[in-house]
């Protein structure tokens, strides 16, 4: 199987060396080739360059991309794509004035999703989730992190992991599984939270690791969920089983979760709608990447992550959808790239870097995904006719994607 794409108006995110992350002011640069070609064999990027230097290459499929832009597929490093049903009734409750916290206190929120998931068969959960994954792929996403966390029992969490494993086996997109061991406190543990944490550290994590699926461990470090001390205890338990942290912090309150993440060598700290200078200092000189989730801020009408403060401090930043039924029911990365420009004041170049190479870094896969580099996986977006790549974020909520190549296959 070989594909040749010629006459590409702009070939974006071309990195000769195997760049794995782009930080600070370097995020303003998006390397590209105007009037370019790219050649793919099986699942691998083999060759690319300017049409001026093009020598005839034979390929089974040839695509003329005149007036079109080609870029690496989006890398969505934070999703909760496996869930059951939806939470449209809570959406209406919020329109009518209830806050996210009030809905959660009334038995809605994550507990509502957990109840639905526990009652849903593994087969049905797979069917619903696989359909969503295929929708994400069609919108240009080629690598997706998927978290558990709607189980809230050992059995239901293991069911989620098995579903994620099956998605990983059956779809062409790269799937990165994360054990969101501590997402919320089930009702029956409200008055004895320490017993629930014991269940997580002594049963769930060991049982989950036996399945040998999850690569990362996540905790929702937030008031009313898990404290900094509890987060540390759960991350330590995960470390015993080689699960690296990727954690939810600073969504509504600053508890000190960012520095706890950094101390535990977290790959990423996600949300950061609330952020102070200590958090920024903690991230400097670390390998931990901050991740902004503007779709969640949009949907809940909460503050946006201060991306400028992070990038201007010389830090890297990734952006992701947080696709989930409660706080971000859209997995459209095209919208996220646009929201990053409009609401986070990122330039189109910064937003595209954050959604490709840095998103791949936040999943630990940027050696193989997230840029146009010889030897990397052939996951590409071919846009509709566009004058310039800046139209991708500019024409918000429009779909720039015309064709997808994923794992070397044209869809
Ligand atoms: Zn999340």
Polypeptide structure, described:
The protein contains 15 helices and 16 strands. The chain is an alpha/beta fold and 411 residues long. The protein has helices at 88-95, 100-105, 109-119, 122-138, 154-170, 193-211, 228-240, 257-263, 277-283, 294-300, 307-312, 333-342, 348-355, 357-361, 391-394, and strands at residues 2-12, 32-41, 44-50, 61-64, 68-72, 74-76, 141-147, 174-182, 216-221, 244-249, 268-271, 289-292, 318-319, 380-385, 401-406, 409-410. The protein binds zinc ion (ZN). Residues 78, 80, 248, 322, 324 line the site of zinc ion.
Bin the strand percentage. 15-25%
> What general outline do the C-alpha atoms trace?
globular
Number of strands: 16
Euclidean distance between termini CA atoms:
13 Å
Low-confidence stretches: none
Query: Helix fraction?
Result: 25-40%
What does the radius of gyration come to? 21 Å
* Ions and ligands: zinc ion
- Specify the biggest β-sheet: 8 strands, mixed
Mean pLDDT: 96
Produce the secondary structure layout.
Blueprint: E1 2-12, E2 32-41, E3 44-50, E4 61-64, E5 68-72, E6 74-76, H1 88-95, H2 100-105, H3 109-119, H4 122-138, E7 141-147, H5 154-170, E8 174-182, H6 193-211, E9 216-221, H7 228-240, E10 244-249, H8 257-263, E11 268-271, H9 277-283, E12 289-292, H10 294-300, H11 307-312, E13 318-319, H12 333-342, H13 348-355, H14 357-361, E14 380-385, H15 391-394, E15 401-406, E16 409-410
Parallel strand pairs: 1-4, 1-5, 6-7, 7-8, 8-9, 9-10, 10-11, 11-12, 12-13
Antiparallel strand pairs: 1-2, 2-3, 5-14, 14-15, 15-16
Helix pairs in contact: 4-5, 5-6, 6-7, 12-13
The protein binds zinc ion (ZN).
């Amino acid at each position: 199987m070989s594909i040749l794409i010629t006459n590409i108006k702009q070939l974006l995110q071309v990195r000769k060396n195997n760049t794995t992350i782009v930080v600070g002011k370097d995020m303003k640069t998006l390397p590209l080739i105007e009037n370019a070609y790219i050649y793919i064999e099986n699942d691998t990027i083999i060759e690319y360059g300017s049409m001026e230097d093009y020598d005839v290459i034979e390929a089974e499929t040839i695509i003329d991309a005149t007036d079109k832009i080609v870029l690496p597929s989006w890398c969505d490093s934070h999703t909760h794509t496996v869930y059951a049903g939806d939470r449209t009734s809570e959406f209406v409750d919020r329109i009518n004035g209830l806050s996210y916290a009030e809905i959660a206190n009334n038995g809605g929120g994550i507990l509502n999703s957990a109840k639905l998931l526990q009652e849903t068969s593994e087969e049905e959960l797979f069917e619903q989730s696989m359909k969503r994954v295929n929708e994400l792929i069609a919108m240009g996403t080629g690598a997706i992190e998927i978290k558990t966390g709607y189980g809230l029992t050992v059995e239901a969490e293991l069911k989620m992991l098995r579903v994620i494993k099956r998605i990983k086996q059956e779809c062409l997109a790269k799937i990165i599984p994360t054990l969101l061991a501590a997402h919320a406190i089930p009702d029956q543990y409200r008055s004895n939270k320490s017993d629930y944490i014991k269940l997580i550290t002594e049963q769930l994590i060991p049982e989950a690791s036996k399945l040998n699926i999850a690569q990362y461990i996540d905790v929702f470090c937030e008031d009313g969920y898990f404290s900094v001390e509890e987060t540390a205890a759960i991350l330590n338990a995960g470390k015993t089983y080689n699960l690296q942290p990727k954690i939810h912090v600073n969504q509504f309150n600053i508890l000190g979760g960012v520095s706890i993440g950094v101390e535990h060598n977290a790959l990423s700290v996600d949300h950061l709608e609330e952020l102070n200078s200590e958090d920024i200092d903690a991230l400097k000189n670390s390998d931990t990447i901050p991740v902004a989730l503007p779709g969640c801020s949009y949907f809940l009408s909460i503050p946006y992550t201060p991306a400028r403060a992070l990038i201007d401090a010389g830090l890297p930043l990734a952006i992701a959808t947080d696709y989930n039924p409660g706080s971000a029911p859209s997995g459209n990365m095209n919208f996220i790239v646009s929201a990053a420009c409009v609401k986070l004041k990122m330039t189109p170049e910064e937003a595209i870097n954050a959604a490709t190479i840095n998103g791949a870094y936040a999943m630990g896969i940027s050696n193989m995904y997230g840029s146009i580099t010889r030897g990397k996986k052939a996951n590409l977006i071919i846009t509709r006719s566009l004058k310039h790549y800046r139209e991708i974020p500019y024409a918000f909520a429009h779909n720039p994607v015309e064709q997808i190549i994923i794992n070397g296959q044209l869809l």
